[in-house]
């Protein structure tokens, strides 16, 4: 791929990624103050029309929630009663549109901000087909995202992460300079930080209490150790890429980089990409062990390239570690973002 085309591809990837993140944030169910997970209109014919939570203005009374929004210049009002002792458990949904009673039914539940329910407004709300289509197009963002469902959104995040990793790998192969070294060494640092956080995070609290450390103190200590280990691995890997080390130190740093990349790849949601390729990754199947085998082989191959200090091996390491690092970190951020914004649970 010509250098200019690669730069344009990276720019296009950045634009698409930023646009998708902006759309996800704008339509997020969790960023709106509502007692429900989602509201949709189910016409008598056709697909449901999803309404974004951000259009509802909700107030919480002593024993009742009231939410209102304007649809086709007419008010949509929703009410739920609840017991003050159990405010999260809503009673039956009551709905009116333009002063007329509308059937409002529970349609499932999500763990958006804890347990919250989805609701469906049955019927056309006495709106014409053109008005219903106008609502669908007016709120195209939430309807597009909801049509993808959980797996579609996860697949989209993994696909963008994979595309970013491929572009970074190509860029590092073409220009194995400062940016390529920075991305590859940062990926190693992230992997080591995740390894330390995961290991110490599994220590039983009974063990921590036995040495006089509280839960909060142990959390701070775990995070501090993870950050320190990650920064140390980041710096040592970058130093090995810039300066000549002796064989012993080169071996130690290369092994640390290999362990870090294994941790990063093994803990990233990129393993779900195998399920989209039709390979089962559930427990008890060969596919459940395949991500570990692939991560192990890839990490030790990268460590070998880093240890064998030759220009071609350095180029291979930068391209491989940078590309896989962007894919692993990107897929992890994508899944965390979808969880935090309330699109998957």
How are the SSEs placed, and which strands pair?
Blueprint: H1 3-26, E1 38-42, E2 49-51, E3 57-60, E4 64-71, E5 74-83, E6 86-97, E7 100-110, E8 116-122, H2 129-138, H3 140-174, H4 178-201, H5 205-210, H6 215-242, H7 247-267, H8 272-276, H9 286-307, H10 311-341
Helix pairs in contact: 1-3, 3-10, 4-6, 4-7, 4-10, 6-7, 7-9, 7-10, 9-10
Notable characteristics:
345 residues; alpha+beta; eight-stranded mixed β-sheet; 10 helices; elongated; transmembrane helix
Plain-language structure description:
With 345 residues, the protein is of the alpha+beta class. The protein folds into 2 domains: 38-138; 148-341, no CATH class. It is built from 10 helices and 8 strands. It has an 8-stranded mixed β-sheet with strand order 2-1-8-7-6-5-4-3. A hairpin with a 5-residue loop joins strand 7 (100-110) and strand 8 (116-122). Helix 1 packs antiparallel against helix 3, helix 4 (178-201) packs antiparallel against helix 6 and helix 7 (247-267) runs antiparallel to helix 9 (286-307). It is elongated. The two termini are 39 Å apart.
